[in-house]
Amino acid sequence: MKKILSLTLAAVTAASVFAGCAQVSPEDASPIHAVSSSAETSAKWLRDRLGDSVNGDIFLATSDDADRFGIDISSLRDEGYVIRRNGGDTVILGSTEDGLDRGARYFANYCADQDEIDVTYGEGFRVKKLTIAGRDISEYSIYLFPDADECHTFAAQELRKYIGLACGYYPNIVNEKRGHMIVLERLLDDPTLGEEGFTLSVKDDGNLYITGGKWRGCMYGVYELLERYIGWRFFFNYQTEKYTEANEESFYYLYDSDHVDIPAGLGDTQVPSFTYRTGRHMVQAYNQYVKLKESSSVNNLSKYNGYGQSTCIGACHGLQFPIQAGAFSNYDPDMYSIFGAPQPCFTDETFIEEAREYYLNDVARLLAAGYEIGKEFSAVDVAQIDSGDFCKCKNCMNAIATERSDAAPVLYFTNIMADAIGEEYPGLWVSMLAYFGTSKPCKKTVPRDNVNISYCFYNDIGKLTCGNHPLSGEKCTEHAADGYGTSNHTYAEEFKEWCRISKRVTVWYYPGNWLLDSITNSTIKTMREDMRFFSDNGVHGIWICCANPPSEGVRESIDILGLYLFQRLLWNAEMTEEEFQAVIDDYLYVLYGEGGKFVGDYYKWLETTDMIGCWPFMLGFGDPRKRIDFSKVHDEFELCLSMFDDAVKYAPSAKAEYGVRLASRSMYVRGLISVYHDWYENGNDAQKARYTELWEYFRNLAVNSSYILSGGKCAVLSDFDISENIGAMVDRFEGSPTRVSDWYDWQKY
Predict the structure, then answer these.
(1) Chain segment 113-153, per-residue pLDDT in tens
(2) What's the CATH code, domain 3-123?
(3) Where along the chain do its domains lie?
(4) Angle at CA of residue 691, ends 688 and 694, nearest 5°
(5) pTM of the predicted protein model
(6) What is the number of helices (H) and of strands (E) in the chain?
(7) By the 8 A CB rule, do 231 and 255 touch?
(8) CA 575, CA 571: separation in Å to the nearest integer?
(9) For the domain bounded by 130-271, which CATH number is listed?
(10) Which of 211, 271, 229 lies closest to 574 in space, CA to CA?
(11) Please, where are the H alpha helices in 425-522?
């Protein structure tokens, strides 16, 4: 039997053993003792949690002091711990301070009242035994074909690394077939797998085959094997740190298992729902995009086989850059340094000729630098600048009248660019936006076969999409609140028509509100149906347009859970509701342990506060009280507080607890606004004290985590006076501002 388990409880708890710990430094007369300074944090936490109502004395120590208790914990992982009690005193030992923290929390939640305790966690590897078709993993090597590129070499290295971390055996990577193997192979021109699909199979020879499509199939197959069949999880971290090799452990998790068997006869083929899968700001904050099967915005192009920033299929105001660079004779670059500058004239022959020359030269420049069409870059972005001020010259207006669409001059220009680029560089796409005045398809003219239409479900100020229902429009019942926007029926029909007349369509997807997101509800309830709607209409790719980088200050409607779910759906848009919920539950458990189910309960509760009907997806264009039932928030604020109290209580570590507290911030915003009058302004002394306590807690949490309330960070909260400032904030909220500027000003209060 292992060393830890071989020790008898009598030896552990003998009076003579504890007598040897006379040097402990108890906190006054508390029965909870830190044996050394490394145990002080956990001891204080346990004192705060349990007080003096404990059975006997409790001694906490890390591995440096474990021998004082006669217990060898050298075989524990960093997060491991031992808890022993036999009718009297208790000892909690952690391999590290993190392990001790976890042990203290486990003791408090699950066994503090027990007379006898014998708990060991974190001994050995998380996967005790790993087999393939019943054969031990130690019989296997990893076969990598001899002419493998950097991407496939990286995939083999990742497979070896995570198998080793899971069970302790690191298979050799070989270039010749012998014995039992995990075989990495690629199919360059397979119509089924394409560029990124894969098949996982265990054949009669006992070998495990990871067969991938042209570019990244093997790599994605490796991650699927690790995740689905071995138990790894790769996720967005809720801390502010960026992914590096040094902090990598903060971004992955592995379930404990006595035995994992990859079964004989396995046959799992997957092809992504969308070829192009990415999101604004995702990579700037995190580098887990590869493991989450994102296909763009990677930094090391060769390592991940292309599809980097320069292959941004989805258009993103490509004209802005040559205009600002002075490429066009009739346009002052300085004018285009600010938002809302006038669009160029898309029917002007001089402008067209200069644009043609610029883009042809730019492609030639990329090719000369060694870029490959279809790999490092796939499209030329000729899309309009970010403005609704279009040219109203005779030619442009005639085109609009003829086509019954404001998009006519833009499509006219785009088709000319597509003809020029397609003739010189076959296989290269030309991208334009259907956005901000150009969302309606033309009646006669259709995009050239090499034109990618990037449709934006944002469109024009004054006719925004509905944020309460899926974009298919099937559940929309009316125009959006306050006269802003329209039901999603209109946008859905425009979008489907673009899909019908275009060879390729990508989507700019706006998952939440950019203005005062702390008030709004999450978009989790609609995203699954939206992704399926896009998939059913043959969309090539999705660009998740997040308003802020995912960080501690991330806005609630594009929270970390939401970003993770988007990544899952971009790969598999056909998830059932049950599968989607399982992904949510799994992710919340990984981040928050048993506390995750209470965070999940809050997300479910939040959906019950949605008002009936349609309302614009951006809060700055409508009364927030018509979107959320604040009377329900008022009445059930204490319920919400209790959900997060339970989540904090059952968080398995200090880091998980902090994550729970971060997740609670928007709940506090809603609740504190809702109960201000009854609790603080008109309440009794007890209610006022309770409100003040909650406000101070939220303020400190928000300031320390740079929480975003509206247009900026809430550092201004550091000087908040409740009676003046929060009253002004509530008054403004209740005044129902409808102008964007009003909501940006909200942060000042």
Answers:
(1) 999 999 999 999 999 999 999 999 999 999 999 999 888 99
(2) 3.30.160.230
(3) 3-123, 130-271, 604-748
(4) 150
(5) 0.89
(6) 24, 22
(7) yes
(8) 10
(9) 3.30.379.10
(10) 271
(11) 488-501
